[in-house]
Amino acid sequence: MGLMAAVELKMPLDDIKGPVERYFARNAGTNLADTYIAAAALHAAEIQPTMAKDWIAAFEATRNADGSYGKSISETAGAVVTILRLEGELADRDQVVESLKKAQRPDGGFGMAADRSDLATTYRVMRAFQMLQERPDLTSCRRFVQSCRNHDGGYGPSTGKPSTVSTTYFACIILHWLGENE
Fold it and tell me: Does a structural domain hold residue 137?
């Protein structure tokens, strides 16, 4: 997160790129969640990690016959985003896109729980769509995001839940992407 903040603040990175990459090489490949965020930070800083092939292979090892990755739509989206950030190629792009599109729920969102969509999953799936330059049903996605808005101006993790900082960020960036694609 610190590296992404440094990028956003336009801080000079030349002196820290080597140590940052070495840190991530030692520490980020231990689990897929850490690899996902490390790839995000390195991508933001325009650093192509030397361990990219190993990280891609770790995500590819979770690939299923139907084109999805892992055990959930969130894991599929995370794998797609990470592979693309690491300049990898998806084994079957069309199958992945179809898998992501099929996961959109009638309320317009995407979710981990069987009974509801949530902004965290919707954010991750929408990030994958952005990177793939594809689109789900944008109108219903906007409707879902708006359903998470509260009277305090923030957004809850799902409809009717209290606002949080992270879910308000998710809602704002999703709405930004929706505006770019409409």
Answer: no
Give the DSSP per-residue string, 127-173. HHHHHHT----HHHHHHHHHHTB-TTS-B-SSTTSPPBHHHHHHHHH
Tell me the per-residue pLDDT of 131-145, one tens digit each, with 9 for 90 and over. 999 999 999 999 999
> Does a structural domain hold residue 68?
yes
Token pair belonging to 130: 């952005």
Place of tokens 């923030």: 154
Q: Which domain holds residue 47?
A: 2-103
Q: Is residue 41 part of a domain?
A: yes
Q: What's the domain count of the chain?
A: 1
pLDDT digits (tens, 9 = 90+) for 41-94: 999 889 889 999 999 999 999 999 988 999 999 999 999 999 999 999 998 899
